[in-house]
């Protein structure tokens, strides 16, 4: 599609969007703007408005809960919780990888402990095992009120970056 | 934002988008159109262009692999593979739930067996255990060429829908 | 078999046992004595010389590592580590169950992080989620020198004891 | 202990054993005889009377369910089910390992789907992923009547045998 066609289709879509759709489209528009203006490492990060809070000692990632993270029951999709946790853990694992190596998730186990109903969800990360070629990390995902909605552990393998 | 402001911001964004961004925005636009015109059970389904192939005997779900499903390494994000698998399993579990009950994922374990590099990925679902109050399902996610990229099992609990 | 036959077969077995076998048989004999003289809740506990260290706040279980806990590679069998952890978690879960209810393990995920080579292994237990009908517990298994050899999480369901 | 002391303590133990204990001791005696007369790869295999049924295409392992495999609720201990499954999978993984390499379990996830009440339990094994340096296997554990009591998947790493 040419730029004109994209603009035209979007403008027509907005004309017939209901207020609820409009709010969601506005949210997505902001996500697209973020990625076009200041590209993050992935579109997913920009679209879901992922925020990272990283320090020497800890790492936390947060996403807002909204229409675009919901499942068909109208609550946070477990896959989105997993995406948040895997992103947080993966970032930590890559931070800890030796020079020239990347960390990839080989396995992840997650317990869903409460429905994800709230404004946003934050995943922290802790180290369970830091080996030469593999790593095991743990992560707890909590709502803004501190309620834990999921706990996960995952295995990472370090592979040469030339891969 | 008013409809005019949304349109205006989008139109300006398109002006400065590079060809790669434009292709991704076009993909997202189509996802938004799908949800506005014929709402699916979730925005996630429309945005990621989830297709369900369901019969008496089996259930498969497919999503295209693209910029919007990538992680920071430029391959399919493990969280997206998990979202696909959890959606497929959840749909199957709810199909099998008794009247008045919904199925929720209480735990999911996934093995990532190959990098998700390809055009699309499809998850099938099989029953491991069908109990009175709980269920265990298995799912294999494969690329269009048949290559398996993940295998997962998950626990579901049946809860009254009034919940 | 009559008592006399059992004694006779055992006595003949001891005659031809080599020193290494004799040491293991001695270990097993002590386990059998423990269960006959002061029955524990299970033969497994007595045979593997399981010790429980329980207080208001915490719970730990320890077993010696020996010939009878080894796998074919001559190190602690992963199944034995899992048995220890599941016993510790199960004891904790049942301690926390409401009157009239028992806790059963519905799922367990374990990461093996180092080979189990040492004198004994101890599993502690912590609560990840304490719900109305389910519980998620975590457990770390460590050698006597503090080296962690495994980390596990498990799901428990509370069921009426009449079951 | 000298051979005489071991014999003496055992003989006295038998004198005061009740019929139920005697039956269990008889079972253990047979396990000890098996290991002394024809050592298996591990004492665990002999004590729990593990049988392996292996062919070009498949691998199954069976253990009898008895007092010595029970948990405190009087049914098959989940740790024993896991030991059986891990043994079966580990045997398969080592069979498939390249010359000079051994396979070790790095992670195992198990779903317990029914109580282990019966005469014996058999675990079969299937390959989920066969990679260069890692492997994922699946296993179903069933009672003699075909009832599935557990399903597990596990990750294996191939390591040089010199390790």
Automatic annotation (TrEMBL), chains A, B, C, D:
Q: Does the keyword Transport apply?
A: no
Q: Which Pfam families match?
A: 4HBT (PF03061)
What InterPro entries does this protein's entry cite?
Answer: HotDog_dom_sf, PAAI_dom, Thioestr_dom
Checking CDD domains in the record gives: PaaI_thioesterase (cd03443)
PANTHER family in alphabetical order: 1,4-DIHYDROXY-2-NAPHTHOYL-COA THIOESTERASE 1
* Keywords tagged on the record: Hydrolase
The entry's protein name is: PaaI family thioesterase
Gene Ontology molecular function terms on file: acyl-CoA hydrolase activity
Can you tell me which residues the record assigns to a coiled coil? Answer: none
Q: Name the species this protein comes from.
A: Mangrovibacillus cuniculi
Q: Where is the Thioesterase domain?
A: 74-148
């Amino acid at each position: 599609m040419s730029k004109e066609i994209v603009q035209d289709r979007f403008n027509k879509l907005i004309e017939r969007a209901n207020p609820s759709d409009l709010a969601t489209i506005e949210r997505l528009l902001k996500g697209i703007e973020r990625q076009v203006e200041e590209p993050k490492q992935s579109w997913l990060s920009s679209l879901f408005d992922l925020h990272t809070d990283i320090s020497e000692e800890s790492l936390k990632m947060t996403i807002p809960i909204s229409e675009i993270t919901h499942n068909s029951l109208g609550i946070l999709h477990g896959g989105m919780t997993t995406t948040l946790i895997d992103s947080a853990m993966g970032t930590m694992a890559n931070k800890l990888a030796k020079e020239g190596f990347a960390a990839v998730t080989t396995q992840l186990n997650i317990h869903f402990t409460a429905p994800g109903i709230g404004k946003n969800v934050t995943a922290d990360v802790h180290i369970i095992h830091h080996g030469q070629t593999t790593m095991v990390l743990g992560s707890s995902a909590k709502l803004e009120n501190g309620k834990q909605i999921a706990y996960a552990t995952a295995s990472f393998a370090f592979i040469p970056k030339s891969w």
